[in-house]
Amino acid sequence: MCRTERVATTRDHNSMMTEIERMAPLTPADLQHAATVDAVAICVKAGEPIEYWKSAPYLINFLKHYELRHKLDAQLNAPSDALRGTLSSANGQLLTKGKFEGYQALDPANPRMRVLLKTRLIRACGSFYGCRLPCRISSLAAHTRTRMA
Questions:
Q1: CB burial class (10 A; 0-12, 13-18, 19+) of residue 139?
Q2: How many CB atoms lie within 10 A of CB 15?
Q3: pTM of the model
Q4: Cβ(60)–Cβ(73) below 8 Å
Q5: Contact 59, 37 (CB under 8 A)
Q6: Cα Rg of the chain (Å, integer)
């Protein structure tokens, strides 16, 4: 039996679960990324991207099967001046091959991702990777690099 089968029998009708609300503070870089994604959406005449932006970092890199990415891909061979300007001014907001190949530290680039890293992954890395808390993402990346080599 799962918790959702007995919701009606609990006093608060909450499946005996509690939701923990966490604040995800915005940084100026987050707002710059939101503005860039919005500008790209306007340039390619795609829908409103704010709900996607709130949920995922490096949005333009990871929107594989969405309208915004399809329209962006269709214009990459002959981009408008506005689109070219928007993408070229995206200072560090896109993932690059060099960041991956050089095992450079990545900024979480999203308020929700920062909360996830802070509350879950960093705590878990101590037990998984054997490092002492507080664990830093850079030490996690270095440890992963040595294990993969």
A1: middle
A2: 13
A3: 0.68
A4: no
A5: yes
A6: 20
Long-range contacts of 28-33 (CB under 8 A, 24+ apart): 29/93, 29/107, 29/109, 30/109, 30/110, 30/111, 32/91, 32/93, 33/59, 33/93, 33/109, 33/110
Place of tokens 């795609």: 46
Q: Are 130 and 124 in contact (CB under 8 A)?
A: no
Question: CA-CA distances (angstroms) from residue 72 to 5, 41, 46, 130?
Answer: 45, 8, 9, 42
> What does the pLDDT look like over 102-131, one tens digit per residue?
887 888 888 988 888 887 776 655 554 455
Give the separation between CA 28 and CA 7, rounded to whole angstroms.
Answer: 42
Say which DSSP state 19 is in.
P
Place of tokens 């001046």: 81
